Structures are given as structure tokens and as C-alpha cells.
Amino acid sequence: MRAATFQGKGDIDVRDMPDPKIVNPRDAIIEVTSTAICGSDLHLYDTVIPGVEKDDILGHEFMGRVVEVGKDSTLEVGQRVVVPFTIFCGHCFQCAEQRYSACDNSCPVEDQEVAEKAFGYPMAGMFGYSHLTGGYAGGQAEYVRIPYSDVVPMVVPEDIPDDRLLFLSDILPTGWMAALNAEIAPGDTIAVWGCGPVGLFTILSALQQQAGRVIAIDGVQGRLDMAESLGAEPVNFHETDILDALKQMTGGIGPDAVIDAVGMEAHGFSVDNIADRIKQSVGMGQDRAHVLRQAIMACRKGGRVSVPGVYGGKADMFPLGAMMQKGLQLRTGQTHVRRYTAELLDLIERDVIDPSFLISHRLPLEQAATGYRNFRDNQDEWIKVVMHP
Amino acid sequence: MNLANWARYGLAATLATAAGGVLIYRSQPRTNRDAAPARTARHARRFGDYRIAGATVTIRATPEQIVKCWRSNALLWPALEYLPFPEGNQPDLLLPPAELRAMASRPLLTRIVAEREDELVAWRSEGEGHADMHGRLRFRDNGAKGTTVEVIMAVRPHHFASALKTEAMMAEALELGLLRDLRRMKMLIEAGEIATARSRPEAA
After folding, report:
1. Which of B146, B183, B192 shows the shortest C-beta gap to A109?
2. Strand locations in A40-106 (E)
3. Which residue of B has its CA nearest to A110?
4. Rounded to two decimals, what is the model's pTM?
5. How large is the ipTM?
């Protein structure tokens, strides 16, 4: 089969790779019909997140059709499924409490030690997201092996096109969970940093969850325009001081909740971000946490901080004092996708939300390298890239 | 002052600081890290001539289900690295997995010597000329989270640490291997299979 493989920093190549087969009884094999490039794929592309090796197949946002099932799978050949990026067993202590991204059993034991050293405990397996998360082959390919196929994938209706369903695999539930983590009360003012795909879905979700105002912060005008079209109030960090602007816009109180939808590769030329970049370039530090620092400083006293943005390492100059003194609550985590998919599918089926607005570019899988490069370097126009094998 | 004197005085200052640090450290009262009241947080690393390694997991199953898996699940045994498993034909005889056999410089004949239902299974190696090893699986209720399973193995380093592998390396490999084995057992019991990222079955 053809698959988009990692070949080095900034180097994606579509190559012939062996077709996957059933390995464990709960497996299924799906033929991919649509797959997307995620902002967090860029962390692998830029080797900011370690553990990705040559010939690894990337991609964790995908959907397709079942072509083969193991003896303990509950799927049927021919069914159409969306596959969450987090792999989970469905039976451990974490899964029993719907914390699917913390599954005890889905990361192979041979790959658990690195994450255990980095994070204290091993995390769940993920499709196409380095050997930190199990080294599973990803979905930017013609076929994918799906472990635990009786619980992980979601069967979807035949009459809704891929464009409206694909983002159930990651970014739509991620935005939804980010808004839930912000514990939005009706009428609250929410500030969202980052108007990429996750940020845009966070804005959509916050408004669905009865936020009164959503202030969207970014530096790319095209993305700010899209945020404004969803109902947010855009603020460009190249044109204004964010802390000052948020105070002015909220009558001196500050946002009730702040959401960092940027993560570990914050942009901008603030002093702390420049220092982070220097440390990152010499292998001293890993995460550029400028947005998280700013969000914590901007949040009102007694407010909430929600962090859907991906972080992988450590961050310097963390405003712990501001967090403590202001009594903030911070909630974060990799998305427990399957926890939210039924509710979100219902919203899609009832036409309450239509996620397909996000797609800016469609490419054949063979042009994956072009997709990655433009998604990273032309953020004004390349908002979301969907590929078809 | 010339460079040679700087070097001399610098070296003297470094040595004096190091000596002072050692004296201060040795004057501190010793605390036994394993002397916590009630249950200790960690097992001892040494006991007489023995080097001890151990691991702990919690499994959502009863001790009976866990012992049954260890005794009779044929999917588990090929995956084990260091945890001995029942031989099958004789209920009290255990087979050491390949990694453990490779580590021992003498043959291992391992037999269960104590078994308390829902609490403990203990074994030791036996026979003249055989490597000296003791081990146990212990079970403890962990409420709604399941059963905590602890494996401890005590080995004599001169039977297990070869010239190519120091005692510290041997102990680290054993400890990591036992943890992996417990996690494989946990996967098999909870999820019904051992997780793998392989895209194809291994060739027969």
C-alpha cells in the first residue's frame, strides 16, 4: 500500500509499505477514505516531539471502511467508521472511568518506558504519533490496522459525507473537551489563544456551551477572519498587547476562562519565546510555553485555565505564583475522544454544527509532502488539509 | 599569580570542598529508607548475599483470576521475559522464561514451595549445582481498582551477573523485565490480548 512516511526533520515521503494484517483477535483493518494533517503532526514533522523514526507512518485523523475483522471484533466488513486517535482497551481502570487517553493497556510494554520516564506513567497508545505512544502506524495510508476494534472506532451513517464526519476523530472532540474543561457558565467571557483547527472548534464549542463572549487571539489574519465568522471577537497579537487588550475588553476583570489551543510551539517574538527557541535549538528545553504563561497571567482571579494544546516536555519561567495567588484551576489532557463522539455526531446529524467549513485544501495522499509544508508555512491560507488515498 | 598557581589553588580548593562535603554527609544520621511505619513504600534492594528486584501492578480481577491466568493461559507464557510460569505437567514445577535462563550462569530448577489462596505463591530454585533464586507473587486487595500484584525475586548475583553484565545491570534488567511481565499479564486479563504495534503477525 501507499503511505505517508516520516523520513527526517521536515521530510515526508509517500512510499510503498506492507499492507497491515490482523494481529490480535480484536483487530480490524480499514481502508482509509479520508485523512487529515493535524497541527500536532507538525510537532513530529519538526521533530519537537521525540520518538518518531524513519519509515513511521504518520496520521491520526482518519476514517474509512472496514475490510477485514478479527474473530473478537464486533465490526462488520463494509461498515463505515471514524477512528479516534487514542487507542484504548475499554476495560482497565482508566477506561472504566472514560479516561480513554490514559488507558493502561494500549501502549505496548516495550514502548512504555520512555513515556514513563518523561511523564511518570505510560500513556495510551495513539495512531501515528511516535514511539512515545506505542509506535502504531498512522492513518495517512491506504489501510490501517485498528486494535480493540470493538470499542475504538465509531460506526457512522452512510448518508453523511466524510467532510462532515472526519473531524470526529480528533479536533472536534478536542475543541469540545477544551470548552468543557473551561467549565463555561452561561454568559461567561472566554479567551481562546490559537485560531487553528483546534482553536476554531474550541470557539464553536464554547459558543455551543453558552459562552456569552469568545475572544479569539492569533497572529494570522486569515485565521482571525475565520474565528470572527464563527462569532468570536478577534485580537491580533502583532497589533496589540494581549494582556492589556483583554483587561480593556472585560472591564478590568479578565476572562472567566482562558483556553490555550496553541501548545508547545508558540509563535511570536516576546523575550520568553525567543529564550525558549534558543533553548529548544540546542536541545536544552522542549516546550515553547509563551501562550500558556500569557493565558495564566490574563485569566481573572478565581478563573479556569483549559489546555488542549499539546505539550511534551518541560517549560521554564512558569507563572506558578500567579496561578496560586489568583486561585486558578487548570485542566488539561489528551482528548478522551470516544467519550464525546456520540453527542457530537448527534449535533452533526441535526445540522447544529457542520465541521466541514474548516477544510481549506484537498489533496491526494501522494502530495502529502506538499500538504505538510504548506500547512506549516502558509497558515494564512492552509487552515486544514484533507487527503484522500 | 601565574596560571600554575591558579591551577594548584583551584585543585586544592576543590579537594577541600569535596572532603568537607563527605565529612558533613557522613556525619548525618542514617535513615533506613525502608523503615516506614506499616507497609514500606519500596522493597529492600539487598538481603544478605541476595540482590532483590520487584515490581507492582494493579489488575482489575480477583487473585483467583490472576493465578488462573498465570497457571493456564498459553498466550501469556511465550510473552514472558523473567517471570517463571507453571510447567503444565507438574503443578508445582515452574519454567524460567528465556531471558531469565540466559541470565543465570547455572541451570534453574524452580519449584513452588508455598501457596496461600488469594495471598501468595512462593517459589525457589533447588538442587545442588543449580542457581540460587527465590521469588513470590503476592496479592493485595486494592478496592475498586482491583487486586495489587507484587512480584519479588531474590537472586545471588554471582549466579546471575555474568562478566558481560554487572550486578547493577542485572538487577535493572530483572526489575524492568518483571514489570513488563506483570503488565503483559494485566493486558491479557483486562483487555484479552497483549498490545502490539506490529502491523503484521510475526512469521512462523
Report:
1. B183
2. 61-69, 80-83, 86-87
3. B180
4. 0.89
5. 0.90
